[in-house]
Amino acid sequence: MANRDALRAFQSRLASRLQAARTTGVAAAWLAVEAGEGKYLFPLGHAGEIFPWTPPQPVPYTQPWFLGVANLRGGLYGVVHLSAFASGAPDNTAATEAARMQSRLVALNELLEVNCALLVDRLAGLRGAEAFTASEPPDAQAPVWLGHLYTDAAGERWQEVNLQALSQQPEFLSIGA
């Protein structure tokens, strides 16, 4: 029970910080998340509301990375498994109940006009440019939705994801198998 309360407190603090960053111009530029083996940075202007894990209703004949649809605060959202989409391989690992308790659905900002939420394994907080020691531009062969690759002081590499560009990609919008 204490873990659940701590998790709720963390989510509440993160939501408050996200709102403060949007309204006061705090230096934070990204929402940092972990999905599978990857560490990703979502621009704050592209990320929408963060929801706790809600099992989606499966949709037949869709891509393996499309988990289905979920009712999130009265809206119908397609749920995409971020690590499976990014890697191009289906996620064959069964998540435990404890792991799913840390999972979150990060909705795309409503201004992007795509009712979609990305399944991430863990929220890692807010990051600004000052949190990183180096950055590399994306490879020429990288998908257009991948931005710079940043390295933090601990040597961890974080991939920037342009959610606006992602939401306009035909391969992302084409969920049919």
From TrEMBL:
GO process annotations (BP): chemotaxis; signal transduction
Top-level taxon in the UniProt lineage: Bacteria
SUPFAM superfamilies, alphabetized: CheW-like (SSF50341)
CheW-like domain residues: 27-172
Range of residues in the leader sequence: none
Name listed for the protein in its UniProt record: CheW-like domain protein
Organism: Variovorax paradoxus
